[in-house]
C-alpha cells in the first residue's frame, strides 16, 4: 500500500519538522532571557545565577535580554559538542546515575544497531534485491508460487499489493530459496551480537551501580530499613512495639527508629503557610523598591474586605498557621491512630541494616516486612501503611485492569485508524475525495496520519499506567515509575506494535488472530503481515524518534509558561525557580518508547533491514538531545542508582524472542530451504549425498527454535549474575564500608546524622522548598565543562543595565 | 470401547490380587521368622530384639519360627487397627515429619474426594442419567446433534462408540442443555472445596514444620551454613580463606568451619576394611561355636593360595588397611587439591547462622554462596564442589533431557499400547484370534493390559529422573528426591495422563494435537477424548492404587532376599541388619503417583464422577498400608521436615487448572447453555425478558475462565503466606531459641558439639555402620503403642529353644 514515495513525503515532513525545531531551539536558547528555560539545571546547581537586580519583574525591558553578538549564532551547533564533551564520571556527579544509565540505553541502541545496519544494508538488501521474486510474481499474477503455501498466508500475500520497499525485504525471496540460509545465519549473528552487547552493558551498569553505592558519602538509606505491616496491638503503641521488637531481634545493631505519621492535615497548613510566606516576601520586596507600604485585602484571596497593611497581615497569618501546625503536630504525636503501622528502623552499621533488610523477621511472613528504605526523596509517603490484605487485593485488581487495558485498547485504535485511512475518509466525507485524489494529500494521510493517531492515543496511557502503579502501593517513587514503565511496555508491544501490524491495513487479521488460528497459524499470520508494515514503522520512527526529541529540546510549553509566569506571577526568587519547571526524564514513558525501537529494529533487522538506518538516526538524535537536556535542563527528583536497568534488559530480551518467533513463522511459511547450488552440483560425490540427505532431513525451523532457547538461557545467566546487585547489598561490601567509616571518623555520631533523615517532609519545623543552591558542592570539573556557557552568561549579564 | 463389563473383569482381577496380597501379608507377617522382614523399623528402633542365640545361622531349625498359636490368625486384621491407632505426634517422633506429611497427602485425598464422591454420585450422576442423550443419539445414528459441533470433535464423537459408563458421564447430556448449569455450579463447589482443604493442609503442615524445628533438641544444622563456590586462590588454602572471610564478614558470630574433602580413595579403603571386619567377626563366631580355628585363602576372595589362619589373616589385613586409610587421610589433609571449594561454616548462635544463610555474602553473586546446611545424613557429598559454570551447564542439559523425555516418550508408549490392543494383537498374531474372541480374554486385554503396560513403562522412569536430578548437582538428598519427583510428575502428567487420553484409542488425535489444531482446538479435542477414557483410568487406579499398595505391604522381594541372605550370607549382627533392607518411602515415585490420582479425580470429578469412588478406595488402602509400613517397616534415611510439601501443593494446583481447562473445552463444545425452563416459561414478564437477554449475552465459558484465575490467585496467596516457612528461618525464631538455650545451658560448648558433625562419613576414625540402636531414645509412648507387637515377639522368643 505505502510506497517508497509515501515514505519520502513522510520523511520530508519529519525532517522539516526536526530541522525547524532544532533551528528554533538554537535561536531561542541563545537569547539570555531564555536561559532559565534552557538551562534550569545550571541555575539549580548554582553554576549560573542572575545578577541581583534581575529578580525583579523585568518583562518591560526584556529587549535587553536578546543576544546581539552575531558571532554566537555562527557557533550555534556548539551545544552538540558541549553535550557530548562531558565525561561520564562527571555526568554521574552532575545529574545522577539514573540519567547516565538512561543515556546509555541510547548508546546501547547505537552499539547494537550500527553494525546491524551495515550488515543488513550490505548483505541482506543485496541478497533480497537479487532474488527478484516479487517482480516475477507480479508478472505471473502471483498464482504459481503461493499455491504451495498455507491457505491463510497465501490469500493475504496475493490480496495485498506489495510496495516498493518490499523489494528490499525478505518478501522478495521465493519460497525455499537457498538465499534464506543467509538470513538464517545473519539472524544468529544479530542475536549473538545483541546478547553480547547486552551482557557488556549489564556488566558495566552493575559495576557503575556498585561504585556509586560504594562512594564516600554516608547516606541515611545505607543504615535504614523500612518496616511495614507492624501488627497493631491494643495495649502497646507502635513506637514501643518497634523498639521492643528490634531490640530483641537485633540486639547488637539496632540504633533507633522513626515512626511514620498520617500528616495530611498538617501538610495542608504547611502548604498554606508556604504560600503566605511567599506573599510576605513579595510585599517586603515591594516595600523596599516602591518605598510605600503594600496593602492587601484579607478575604477571598485578597479581593474582598478592607485594605490592610500587607506585611503585618501576612506576618500575623504566618504566626497563626505556625501555631495551628504546631498544635496539629502535637495531636499527631499524641494520637496513636495517626501513627501508621510502618517505621524507618536505623542500625548502628551498614552490616546490621543489610542483615535486617534482607532476612525474614517474623514467622508470619505477612507482618514485620522489612526492605531497604528508599532514599528520603524517593519515598511515596501515602503508600507506606497499606494493610497486607488490601495490598494484595489492589495488586489483583490492577493486574486485571492492566490486562483489560492492554488487550482491549486495540478496538478504539483500530476504529480510528480505519476511519483515518484513505478509503475510510473518502467514504465518511465524500466531499473530500477531490482533495484526497491529489498525490500529496493522499501520501500525507497514508504516511503521516496513522503514526500521528497512534502517537495521540499513546499519550493518554502513561497517566493511566502511572495511576495503576500508584494504586498498587509501591513505597518508592522509583519503583512506581519502573512498574508503570513495565505496564506501558506491555501496552506498547501489544497495542502499538502488534496492534499496528494486525489492524492497520488488514483488519480482518484480528479476527483470524483471536478467533480460530492455531499457535503455528498465529506465527504464520505475523510472518505474513510484519514485512508489509515496515513502511508504517519507518514513519512511526520518524515521527516519534526524530521529530519527538527535536520537539522535546525546543521546550515549547516550559518556554511559554515561564515567560507568562515571569511576566505576571513571579514575585520572589522561589517563584522564579518554580517557574523554570526543569522537568525530568519521565521514565515511565521514555523507557517503553526506547524499548519499542529495539523491538522494531530487532524484528525487522532480518526481514526489512531498510528500517535500521531510521532507527539508528533516531537513537543518535535522542542521545544528543537527551544528553544536552540531562546536562542543562532536567532535575532528577530522586536517585535509584540505575535500578530500572534490569527491566530494560528484560524487555530487550523479550524483543529478541519476539524477533525469533516471527522468524520461526517466516521460515515455516517458506518451507524447507533448499541447499541450492551445492546439492544439485555435487549430487554424485559422497559430500553431495550427505548434503542431499541433510536437505531432506532438515528444515530451517529447528535451527530457529534453538535461538529463543539460547536467548532465554542467556537471560537467566545475566539475571543470576547481575540482578542481585540491583536487589541486595552483599554483607562483604557492608563490612568493608563500616570498617572504612570507623577508621576515618571514629567518633561520628550516627544517631545525630540519622535523626531527622526520615521525617515526613511536612513534619520538620523549618520548611524550605527552594533547593539548597549554596549547599550543593559544585565539582570543579563540571564547572570546567560548563565554563563556556557561564562565561557567556556573565559577560552578557555584565553588559546589562541594572534596573 | 470399554464397557462396564470390562471394568467389572478388571475390578475382579484387581480385587482378587489385592485380597490375595493382603491375606498373604497377614499370614506371613504372623510368622515370627518374618519379623525382620515385616517389622524392621522396630528392630532399628530397638523395640524388638532377637534373643542372643538367634544371631547364628538358623535356617536348619526354621520350623520353630512359625506361628502355632491359631488365636493369632483370628486377630489378623489387628494390624489395621494398630496402624491407625498411633497418634500423629508420636508418629512424628517415631518416624519423622517427612513420613507424617506424606501420610497426610492420603488423608488430604480422602478429605477432598469423599464429599466430592457423595455430591458427584448423588447429584451429577442423577442429572447425567436423566438427560438420556446417548440413548436418543444411538437410535438416530448420531447425526443430528453433532452437526452443530466443531468438525474435529463431531467426527470423533461419532466415530467412537460410547460405552456403558458414558451414560453416567457428562457425555450423556445434549449440547446447550440447562442441566449443564448444574455441572458449572458443581465445578465451582469442587474447586472451592479443594482450595479450602489445600489451604487448611498447608497451614497445618506449616505449623507442624515450625513446631518440629522449634523443638528442644539442638541440631547441628541449626548452627551451620553450607558455603559453596569458595574462589580458589593460589597463595592461600581454602581453610585460611574461609576463616578469614567469615571472621571479617561475621566477626561476632562466626565460630568455626569444617572443610569438605575429596575422600573417594579413602572411602574405598574404609569400605574394604568394613568388609574384612565383617569376615573377622564371622570367623570369631565360627571359632567360638565350632571350637576349631577357621581358615581362609589369601587371594581371589578366599579361593586361591594356601590355607591360613582366618582370624590372624583378617586382623593383619585390617591393620594394614587402617594404616593405609590413615596415610590417605594425612594425604588428604596435606594436599590442597583434595580440599573441595566448599565448607560447612558454623556460628555461635542460630541468629548468626540464619543471617549468613539468608543473605548474599559477596558482591559477585556466583561465589561464596551460602545456604542452610542440610542435616548431616541428608548431604550428597559428591555434589558439594561442582563449579558454578559447570552447575549451570548441567542444569541446562538436564532440562533439555527432561524435555525430551517428557515429550518424546509418548512414541514408544503409543506403539506398545496400539500393539497390545485387541485389533493390534489380532493383526500381529492371527493364530490368537480364536482365543481372543472369548469374552473373558477380550475383556482382559481391553481392561487390564493397557494399564499394565503403562505401569511397566512408568517403572523405568524413576531411575532416569533420579539420575537426572543427581546430575543437576543438588547438595542434599531430600532436594534431589523432590526435584526428581517434580520431573516425574511432569512425565506422569504429559505421558501417563495426556498420553493415554490422546493415544490409547484414538492415535490420530496426536497428530491433530501437535500438528495444526489451535489452543481452543486442543481444549476441544481434550474435552471430547477425556470422557471416553474414564474407564481406562478406572482400570489404572485399580492396578496402581489398589493392587499396588497391597503388593507393597506383602514385601515379596525383601522377604525372599532376607531369607536367602539369612540362609547363606548373614554372618554377623551387622549383616542381619543389612539383610532386613527396611526400605524407605521413595518420594520421587510415590508423590507423582499420588498427584496423578488427584489429577484424575479432579479432572473427572465433574465429567465422569463414577471414577471418584475408585480413587477414594485407592487413597484409603494407601493410607492404611503406608501408615502400617511407616510404623513397622520404613526407615527414613534423612529428615527434611516436610520440605516437599510446597511441591505437592503446586502440583495439585496444576491438576486443578488442568481440570478447569478441560471444562472450558467441554463447555466450548457444548455451546451456550440455555436457561431451560425459566426463560421459555416467563418470556413475557420483565424477569423473563432480562433472563432472555442474559441467555443471549452469556455463554458458560466466561464463568469457567474465572476459575483458573481464582485458583492462580489462591495459589499465589498460599505461596506468599506459607512458603517462606519452607525456605527461611525467621530471625525472631532464631533469637527466641538462642535465648532459651542460653537460659537452660549457659555453659554448653557449641564448638565441641559441632566439632565432628559435618565430617565426611568415611573420614572419622571409628566407623560403625550399624545404626546406634542403644543410643536412640525410645519414647515411652511409642513403646506403649508397640507393646502388643513386642509382647507377642517376646513370648514367642521365650518359647524358642536356644540352639
UniProtKB/TrEMBL annotation, chains A, B:
<dbReference type="Pfam" id="PF14703">
    <property type="entry name" value="PHM7_cyt"/>
</dbReference>
<dbReference type="InterPro" id="IPR032880">
    <property type="entry name" value="CSC1/OSCA1-like_N"/>
</dbReference>
<feature type="transmembrane region" description="Helical">
    <location>
        <begin position="396"/>
        <end position="420"/>
    </location>
</feature>
<dbReference type="InterPro" id="IPR003864">
    <property type="entry name" value="CSC1/OSCA1-like_7TM"/>
</dbReference>
<keyword id="KW-0472">Membrane</keyword>
<dbReference type="InterPro" id="IPR027815">
    <property type="entry name" value="CSC1/OSCA1-like_cyt"/>
</dbReference>
<feature type="transmembrane region" description="Helical">
    <location>
        <begin position="112"/>
        <end position="134"/>
    </location>
</feature>
<comment type="similarity">
    <text>Belongs to the CSC1 (TC 1.A.17) family.</text>
</comment>
<feature type="transmembrane region" description="Helical">
    <location>
        <begin position="596"/>
        <end position="628"/>
    </location>
</feature>
<keyword id="KW-0813">Transport</keyword>
<dbReference type="Pfam" id="PF13967">
    <property type="entry name" value="RSN1_TM"/>
</dbReference>
<feature type="domain" description="CSC1/OSCA1-like N-terminal transmembrane">
    <location>
        <begin position="7"/>
        <end position="200"/>
    </location>
</feature>
<keyword id="KW-0812">Transmembrane</keyword>
<feature type="domain" description="CSC1/OSCA1-like cytosolic">
    <location>
        <begin position="222"/>
        <end position="383"/>
    </location>
</feature>
<dbReference type="InterPro" id="IPR045122">
    <property type="entry name" value="Csc1-like"/>
</dbReference>
<dbReference type="Pfam" id="PF02714">
    <property type="entry name" value="RSN1_7TM"/>
</dbReference>
<feature type="domain" description="CSC1/OSCA1-like 7TM region">
    <location>
        <begin position="394"/>
        <end position="667"/>
    </location>
</feature>
<feature type="transmembrane region" description="Helical">
    <location>
        <begin position="648"/>
        <end position="669"/>
    </location>
</feature>
<feature type="transmembrane region" description="Helical">
    <location>
        <begin position="12"/>
        <end position="30"/>
    </location>
</feature>
<feature type="transmembrane region" description="Helical">
    <location>
        <begin position="440"/>
        <end position="468"/>
    </location>
</feature>
<keyword id="KW-1133">Transmembrane helix</keyword>
<feature type="transmembrane region" description="Helical">
    <location>
        <begin position="180"/>
        <end position="200"/>
    </location>
</feature>
<feature type="transmembrane region" description="Helical">
    <location>
        <begin position="488"/>
        <end position="507"/>
    </location>
</feature>
<protein>
    <recommendedName>
        <fullName>CSC1-like protein</fullName>
    </recommendedName>
</protein>
